[in-house]
Amino acid sequence: MKLGFHVSIAGSIDQSFDRAQLLGCTAFQIFTRNPRTWKSKPLNPDEVKAFRRKHRESKIGPVFSHMPYLPNLASPIDTIYKKSVDALVEETERCDELGILYIVTHIGSHVGSGAEGGRLRLIQALGRAADKGGPMILLENDSGSGDHMGSNFGDIAELINELGSTRIGSCLDTCHTFAAGYNIATRDGLAQTLQELRSTIGINRLKLVHLNDSVGGLGSGVDHHDHIGLGNIGEEGFRLILASQLSKRPMIMETPVNDRRSDAENMNKVLELAGLSMR
Fold it and tell me: Could you say which of 33, 96, 218, 234 is the most buried, measured as most Cβ atoms within 10 Å of its Cβ?
């Protein structure tokens, strides 16, 4: 099982490997830049060399990049849309430098302009980025709140099929999936969810699972992550998930940073629920 966390790049981007190793990660995810601003600093060549060297030597992988918080690839506002597309294109170039093969992006919000308008914006943005070559872009499913798009597997599949690019895949977030109304916390609900996933997006397009419990209830639309087993999916739900076909994909935790449980404790909980030896 490939298992890890979203880890910090504070200090220098190559230090993400050091942090991942301390946590016992076999895969991990990063922001390649400050996720809360539009501007980004060019990658330091020495840090890039160190990142690539540690990647080779650590045998940890794959490594995933996550897009920053501000971009909205479905925005009807021209200035925001242009900045968002530019940010995605720039991220493909940064990942190329670093040797990162996958970028995770939220699908975005149409901000009241209508789902069809948002879909057209998305197709144009993703098509431009995919045409640049480089890493595969993974579309992350949404929790279904407000005007956010991509909470339905069928809608994601339509986007992927319309783009027709081998460089577009998917990322399934367990918190978002549950909050969007897919009951992955029960045996029957998980089986139905996986069947819908297979018949729409396709398992071959799924490259990553974000393993997060849900503060919100089933179908709540609430995108609020919880520690593994402490939310509404619960320990039994994760025991089922970890015994399913989803465990054949890399699993990255984006669990909270608070006093309820540490990253190391979340790692051990997943290993326990999967029936594997704890560190």
Answer: 33
Q: 6, 19, 66, 205: which one is catalytic?
A: 66
pLDDT tens column, 169-210: 999 999 999 999 999 999 999 999 999 999 999 999 999 999
Contact 20, 270 (CB under 8 A): no
Catalytic residue at 227? no
Verify whether residue 148 is a known catalytic residue: no
Q: Which domain range does residue 268 map to?
A: 3-273
140 catalytic, yes or no? yes
**Do 68 and 83 touch, CB atoms closer than 8 A?**
no
The pTM for the full model equals: 0.96
pLDDT tens for 19-60 read 999 999 999 999 999 999 999 999 999 999 999 999 999 989
Which CATH number do you get for residue 92? 3.20.20.150
Residue 279 is assigned to a structural domain of this protein? no
User: Number of structural domains, the chain?
Assistant: 1
**Would residue 36 show up in a list of annotated catalytic residues for this protein?**
yes
The yes-or-no answer on residue 224 being catalytic is no
